[in-house]
């Protein structure tokens, strides 16, 4: 695509809207497509003074009612940014679909890189800065979880109570619906679901939960700290320890732990053990973590369910299997359920 073409955008109409309503930027822009971001149509803009920004809108075509909700993301970065939490600057939100066919927003550009795998960590983060990086990640999550949603204008973001119960209901329904197309079931998925329902900890104060918080959804700067947290599509109000359990599952406790997934961004030497990060979070938030293994187990179980759904779509012919390691998907389901069971066993003994 040339600089003056952008999928999903009427460039002249968007630039006119920016000129009228976003004093931070001076069109016309140079447009550059950015990949990633859950298929939203995302471009980096460079204005006449050289200033960089980012524009996002949903993909073209019909969407599920809550999918790719630009207003939700905008509400989050606007409210969180006002507290000093590291998100891109909120420049402008457009809900006039006649401008370019969909709601969109413009935010500041933040220098940094996400880390999706071990190679990217190796390329970007020296070994002697990986403790700094891990501490920054966990401190940023803790800082999110001490914010009172009502106090920062996010009290209506979602239901405050019953977060894990709703998640269990949604994802168990996904597992059962995927059994037939996947031609695959595992009794542990049912037994673990029952355990999690029957042993659910009482939820404390509702907080903003990101839902997919890790190095893959952060921009890491040259100082090896979190410069910005991105991709708030799954964010809602709920139990912050569910967020913590997900993030801690990305780290190992020992080298043997790490060796089981050598492709993860955290599988390299230099990262602190998971227990150290958990203790740091507890100190920063004042939360007790005696039920942490419940939340870690729940997240392993949820991962198994998600991969099971992906496997089912492949087996049903809804997605091309060319180059796809179907056996690897089954192994991921098995390993995730095993890890969930181990977390439950630690709770019980």
UniProtKB/TrEMBL annotation:
InterPro entries referenced in this protein's UniProt entry, alphabetically: ACAD10_11_N, AGP_Transferase, Aminoglycoside_PTrfase, Kinase-like_dom_sf
Species this chain originates from: Candidatus Seongchinamella marina
Transmembrane segments: none
SUPFAM superfamilies xrefs: Protein kinase-like (PK-like)
Gene3D superfamilies: 3.90.1200.10, Phosphorylase Kinase, domain 1 (3.30.200.20)
PANTHER family xref list: AMINOGLYCOSIDE PHOSPHOTRANSFERASE DOMAIN-CONTAINING PROTEIN-RELATED, AMINOGLYCOSIDE PHOSPHOTRANSFERASE-RELATED-RELATED
Pfam family, one: APH
Official protein name in the record: Phosphotransferase family protein
Sequence ranges assigned to domain Aminoglycoside phosphotransferase in this UniProt record: 31-254
């Amino acid at each position: 695509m040339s600089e003056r073409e952008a999928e999903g955008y009427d460039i002249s109409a968007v630039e006119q809207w920016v000129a009228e309503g976003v004093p931070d930027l001076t069109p016309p822009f140079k447009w550059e497509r950015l990949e990633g971001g859950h298929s939203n149509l995302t471009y980096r803009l460079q204005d006449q003074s050289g200033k960089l920004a980012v524009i996002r809108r949903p993909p073209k075509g019909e969407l599920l009612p809550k999918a790719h909700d630009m207003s939700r993301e905008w509400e989050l970065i606007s409210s969180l940014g006002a507290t000093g939490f590291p998100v891109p600057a909120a420049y402008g939100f457009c809900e006039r679909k006649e401008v370019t066919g969909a709601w969109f927003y413009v935010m500041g550009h933040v220098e940094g890189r996400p880390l999706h795998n071990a190679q990217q960590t190796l390329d970007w983060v020296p070994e002697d800065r990986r403790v700094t990086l891990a501490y920054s990640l966990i401190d940023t999550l803790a800082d999110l979880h001490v914010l009172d949603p009502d106090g920062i204008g996010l009290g209506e973001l979602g239901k405050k109570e019953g977060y894990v119960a709703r998640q269990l209901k949604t994802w168990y329904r996904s597992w059962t619906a995927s059994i037939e197309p996947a031609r695959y079931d595992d009794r542990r998925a049912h037994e673990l679901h029952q355990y999690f329902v029957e042993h659910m900890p009482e939820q404390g104060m509702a907080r903003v939960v990101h839902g997919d918080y890790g190095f893959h959804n952060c921009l890491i700067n040259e100082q090896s700290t979190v410069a910005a947290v991105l991709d708030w599509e799954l964010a809602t109000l709920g139990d912050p320890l569910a967020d913590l359990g997900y993030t801690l599952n990305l780290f190992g406790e020992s080298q043997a732990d790490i060796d089981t997934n050598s492709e993860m961004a955290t599988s390299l030497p230099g990262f602190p053990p998971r227990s150290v990060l958990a203790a740091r979070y507890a100190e920063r938030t004042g939360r007790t973590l005696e039920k942490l293994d419940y939340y870690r187990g729940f997240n392993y179980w949820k991962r198994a369910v998600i991969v099971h759904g992906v496997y089912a779509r492949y087996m049903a012919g809804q997605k091309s299997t060319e180059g796809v390691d179907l056996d690897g998907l089954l192994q991921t389901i098995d390993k995730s359920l095993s890890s969930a069971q181990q977390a439950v066993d630690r709770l019980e003994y």
